[in-house]
Amino acid sequence: MNGNNTEPLDSYELKKYKDEQALHIIVGLLERTQANIKLYIGFLEKILATQNKKPEKQTEDINEILDDDGDFINKQLEQIRNNMHQLENNSESPDLWTYSIEIAKVQDSLERLIPINKKKSDNANKGDLEEYLSYEEFDPSHLSHREFHLKTESHKEFESSYPLIPKKNASSTELVETYKHVRTNLERAKKIRREIGIFTIPLRVKEYMKKLAGVGTYLDFHNQFKNELEDADDRMVVLRKLAEWNSKYIHGVVDIDKGVIYYVGNFWRQVLSYIMILGTAVIGLGIVYLFKFEGFQFLGFKQNPDDYWILFVLYLLTFTGVFLHIIKQAGDLSRMKDNKGVILDKLRLWVHVREYRFVTTVIAAIVGFILLAHYTDMYEYTSEIYWTFFLVGYSVDSFSDLLLQRFNTAVSVHNQDVKNKLSNILKSSDQSKSLSLETIKETSSK
Q: What total number of domains does the chain contain?
């Protein structure tokens, strides 16, 4: 292969590396900023907790909070300013054009809370949008990300930010304004955390998925990110966004209803899942074949040689029902939002991540088939019997669900009984020990 043929590949790999590095820097800056903002939010909430007290006590408590945390919070705000400057510089990378709007929104929210010294040229960014768009060959890539956002969003001036840290020894009249400013800053700070979370969580979730044990394990999304995104609706927005992404970017598939992301293995691990499911069904077919031989007469299949072929047909009908039900379940899980259709690539992945469940379904179907065949009159087959075997295969998963639920309920009740008995035994033991000590003390006093 000559050098001309390899050059496009090398250029692509280099661009991909630059994209990943630029995005990694941005995400790192925003993560640090979010940590700083979290501390600032805690500080503001402490101050707001004093507002139900008397004015003299309010001033005293605020002074105490400022003495304890004021310098520390000032350092956090200074770190945020430094992060904002770095964010401004790094966000101009052409490799980040895909994320330019999201990054600009975070920047604007930060500047509403913490204004930074801006260059004079920034005011030019708020020029006449119509003039910019009047060119026939307008190309957004000629603009910086910041310019593009400012030109395509409404350009009203930001409100001047309130004092970030209250002053000490505020009078009773000043306290009203103090609490007003604190509430406004708190609202803006929480908005920043929300926007950073919505932007960075999808880009970070892959790292959490890599830590999972393997196929069948999952990440509880709501539990993992409830501190970053307190509103469940915001977490659902991110989950829906992740559900539409290619699974290779997050190493998983999203179950929006349950709020979890299931781990997805590599290609050969996915192939193994299908081998396990189909292999289990083949083993069941082997059991049907054994019905031809001695030792299986008690099942009533030996009387007529044609029974074997009938059983074979019934087995295929049963597992036609099983596999149709598996496809239906995987299709329901891979359905896009608003029920607009099924993502076929996700359908095959759902079979993979639910391999344990579907193997269990196949085993239950084999057991159900044997029991049904045993109690069915082998000489009076009608179309209803064929339909019955098909329905058994299709609905066996529902029956196994019911059995598992009852089993889990029974186990939990039994565990609770055991815990209660152990608790009673320990209480009795403690009481006997205390009585023994009292008896010893009384004896020694005499």
A: 3
